[in-house]
Amino acid sequence: MNWKHTLQFPDSPKVSEEAKDLIKRLICDKEHRLGHSLKTSAPIGKFKDPGDADDIKSHPWFSNIEWDLLSVTKPSYTPEVQSLDDTSHFQDVNEEEMLHAIHGNDEEGEEDSEVMEIRKKMAFVGFTFRSSRSQSAQKRTSVCSIIERD
After folding, report:
1. Structural domains of the chain, count
2. What is the extent of the structural domain holding 43?
3. What's the mean pLDDT when you consider all of the chain?
4. More confident position, 7 or 39
5. Buried b vs exposed e over 23-50: b needs ≥16 C-beta within 10 Å?
6. Which residue has the higher pLDDT, 133 or 76?
7. What proportion of the chain, given as a percentage, has pLDDT over 70?
8. Is residue 28 part of a domain?
9. Residue 140 confidence (pLDDT)
């Protein structure tokens, strides 16, 4: 996404100035990004020290967070889910509306829609998932069938 041209905050729901500032300081060029404190002599991606997250944690939007107690604090909201892949708490995204909002009625939006369809089809080409659980189940099945034959 071209955040420099498309990042906008709607009038509703109301987004606080602190939240807007946090988002803008996380979605920006890395040199200006909140928490960006790399050593100039260190290899790319190496931080100065473990406290570099303090830059983000000290942002005003997080002022009510007690970081030292976070792991033992009960969440203010815990969604009820039916299964591990339950997405009922996420709103549906209409891709056509999204492309229209970005490009309007121009031909580029139609081309982007075609590109998006191709990307969806190609997203997992070359990837294979093999569950160790299903392999174990296959082994058990084959052992059971041997036992039954005897």
Report:
1. 1
2. 1-73
3. 75
4. 7
5. bebeeeeeeeebbeeeeeeeeeeeeeee
6. 76
7. 65
8. yes
9. 47
Identify which has the larger pLDDT, 96 or 14: 14
DSSP structure string for 108-141: HHHHHHHHHHHHHHHTTTT-----HHHHHHHHHH
| Neighbour tally for 98: CB within 10 Å | 14
The answer to whether position 114 is within a domain reads no
Answer whether residue 1 is part of any domain.
yes
Looking at the chain, the number of H-run helices and the number of E-run strands are 6, 0
Residue 55 maps to a domain:
yes
Answer yes or no: is pLDDT of 63 > 90. Answer: yes
Q: Is 27 helix (H, G, I), strand (E, B) or coil?
A: coil
Q: Which pair of tokens denotes residue 118? A: 């191709």
**Long-range contacts: 56-64, Cβ < 8 Å, 24+?**
56/26, 59/18, 59/21, 59/22, 59/25, 59/34, 60/18, 60/21, 61/16, 61/18, 61/19, 61/21, 61/22, 62/22, 63/18
In one-letter notation, the amino acid at residue 2 is N
pLDDT at 81: 92
